[in-house]
Amino acid sequence: MSAINFNLFIRVFNSILNSVTSPTFYNIYIKLPTQNTPLDPYIAENPKFYPFFEGALGALDGTHICAWPPVSDRSHYCNHKSGVSQNVLAASTFNMHFCYILSGWEGSACDGVVFHDAQVHDFEIPEGKFYLADAGYPLCDVLLVPF
After folding, report:
1. What is the pLDDT of residues 89-128, one digit of tens each?
2. Of 8, 42, 47, 132, which residue is the least packed, with the fewest Cβ within 10 Å?
3. Which one, of 32, 10, 34, lies nearest residue 102 by Cα?
4. In the 8-state DSSP scheme, what is residue 40?
5. Going by C-beta distance under 8 Å and a sequence separation of 6 or more, which residues neighbour residue 48?
6. 118: CB partners within 8 A, 6+ apart
7. Distance between terminal CA atoms of the chain?
């Protein structure tokens, strides 16, 4: 990829990222589950899942996306596989719709720290509800992680 095409790609990518994370877009299109969110039929109609996952809203996990931070910040973005990335937290419903995304954390940040930041700022999980998560997340009332 030539330098001109790469610069154009970066500008377009940044423009799209700024658009979908703007308050105007976020407040209209992002809908977090509420206390009254009905149990997903995928759970309710399957005897393998119901009643064991009653209250489950979906699943969440972190993923690493390649990043090109300034050289001065590069060491913070080194992940556990020696790559340079940012850690992105994403939550989805059982219908495979994203209901929450938090991006921008350094690749060196562990999943539990990113999750804590999301909860402190704007990721609210209704009482009695929970998300399925992997072992990289803390044991708590709002996450069901493997033992």
Report:
1. 999 988 888 889 888 888 888 888 999 999 998 899 999 8
2. 47
3. 32
4. P
5. none
6. 89, 100, 102
7. 46
* Res 29 pLDDT > 80: no
Q: What is the spatial distance between Cα 111 and Cα 117, in angstroms, rounded to a whole number? A: 10
From residue 22, alpha-carbon distances to 17, 29, 48 in Å are 8, 11, 40
Q: Which residues pair with 98 in a beta bridge?
A: 92
- Alpha helices in the chain, H assignment, sequence order: 3-20, 23-29, 41-44, 111-121
Residue 45 CA: distances (Å) to CA of 36, 38, 50, 113, 147: 18, 13, 7, 35, 26
Name every residue whose Cβ is closer than 8 Å to that of residue 139 and which is 6 or more positions away in sequence. 145
